[in-house]
Amino acid sequence: MRHLPRAIFTALGATSLLVLGACTAADDTADPTADTDTVTATGTAETTNASQGEVLSATLNDAEDSELGTVEVNELNDALEITLSVSGLEPGFYGFHIHQTGLCETDSAAPDNPENTGAFLSAGGHLGSGESDHPDHAGDLPQLLVQESGDGALSFQTDRLTLADLQDDDGSAFMIHDGTDNYANIPERYAPDGADEDTRSTGDAGSRLACGVVGE
């Protein structure tokens, strides 16, 4: 067997090292690129989803103009996500609704009965109250539960209404009532003839405690 000169072996070894080094560099370059592509795609999707819809808000003030909380409305696909945060209230349940007029005036008159005056009556009845009985109005919402600390939070989704419903010609307003909403669920043993007109209109949620115009 013939022996190749040492110089040839040296050259072949150097070539092999160069090839292996190039492959390793390519692998090192490919992996981070693949990871970066994945992260970028995910981040873009999340950003796009988060910015799909318009955001509305309202500040809830009581009749003494003290701020009690805020409401935020986000449009998500075919529904609205409503988030409420309050503080400084007595613990317990409170009725929470959207009213049909964006006007939160203290010592005001009800639009349908000027002789009926009181805090925030300017906001009118529940949004959609002319189309059904309570609790099937578009503006009938889940109750707020306030903790012993006086703080309360509520977040939910509804497809009963749209941003356009909240931003019609006369606007709309979020309302916290000082009583519990019974959603017109009156057992027949208490009312054989069913709930009365007041209950079917308001759920007996009581007076209007805090009001906030949507969009302000």
Describe the overall structure.
- With 216 residues, the chain is an alpha+beta fold.
- It has two domains: 1-51; 55-213, Immunoglobulin-like (Sandwich), CATH 2.60.40.200.
- The chain is 25% helix and 29% strand.
- The protein has helices at 6-50, 163-166, 197-202; strands at 55-62, 67-76, 79-86, 92-94, 96-99, 108-110, 113-118, 144-146, 152-158, 173-177, 208-213.
- The strands form three sheets. A seven-stranded antiparallel sheet has the order 5-10-11-1-2-3-9, with no helix packed on it.
- A hairpin with a 2-residue loop joins strand 6 and strand 7 (113-118).
- The longest helix is centred in the first third of the chain and has 45 residues, at 6-50.
- It is globular, with a radius of gyration of 31 Å.
- Its EC number is 1.15.1.1.
- Residues 188-216 are annotated as: Disordered.
- It catalyses: 2 superoxide + 2 H(+) = H2O2 + O2.
- This is Superoxide dismutase [Cu-Zn].
- Keywords: Copper, Metal-binding, Oxidoreductase, Signal, Zinc.
